[in-house]
Specification:
Length: 131
Amino acid sequence: MNWLALLGLDVMVARWRVAAIEGAIAVEDRMELAKLEWQDQKRYIRRVLVLAMAVAGLTVVSMVMVSMAVLIQFWDTPYRSVAGWVVAGVWLAAWLGLLVALLRTVQRAEDGFPLTRRELAQDWRDIKDML
């Protein structure tokens, strides 16, 4: 004898079972979306790191060479100390520019996983509406 059917609970159990299956499918979809976005995020981070290392290396080499050239050019002139301070100022300006670029890149990276966050927010709104 099926007590659930007699008590009319079989419909409720079936609904809960369907809801659990749909929830599992939704979680699976969200996990797949997060996985795809994580792959994109890793590619972006890798690209930024490689480019940053290349720019940093080339910047240091080129700035050292330009600094040496400027100091050599003005070595036997009364403008030697001015040239030294100008070289130091250029180095400082380059450092500040790179710092600003780094901060902008970090701020942009905080917006990772936009599709996953939007889907989860929509799911949360749907759950709240159902309750």
